[in-house]
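S.,

Sequence below, as promised.
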Amino acid sequence: MAHATAHAAHHGHLAVPVDHLHDDFPLGRWLATQRTRAHDLTAERTAALTALDPWWNPPWPITWQRAYHAARRQTEQDAAAAPAGEWLTAQRQRVGRLHPEQRRLLENLGLDLPDAAASRAKNSLLPARERAFERALAAARAFRQREGHLHVPQWHIEEIDGEQVRLGQWLSNLRRRRSSLTTPNKRRFLDLWE
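The prediction came back faster than expected:
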């Protein structure tokens, strides 16, 4: 905990990459393990990590949280920072798929976000089967980012944008019926495993 405390005091967050070392301590690996075992942590450990960073174990991919902190840092240093601007623009375009708390974090940076309902309506132009595939793919990516693998129990349900996705069942079905996927979706499915 001392390394996590020191990192959070200096950087303001705990969204470090898995390979991050803090004073030769594998802080990134330690935090990844804490996230994986979050449901088994003591209330005291969970409270201590949450006190350091309320989003130490977000319901969205930790890579998003890292990108958010990079954008926040760049915005604080230079409001016209190009990389932050590109990432923030991408967030505006996918606002309908963001968790409400992700939206709040972005709005706190001063980002003017379009109405999420209007964005979802635009996405509803996709056929239902394609929307379901997109949702399940996002759930698989979130699970892999958080857990570091895709060995998902068949009963596992992942929540994405407030909707529950039966991720374990979806992956099991796709493994059996991979040949029925369209070529682009087959490629996207296979990319998950790389």
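The beta strands are 158-160, 163-165.

Coffee later?
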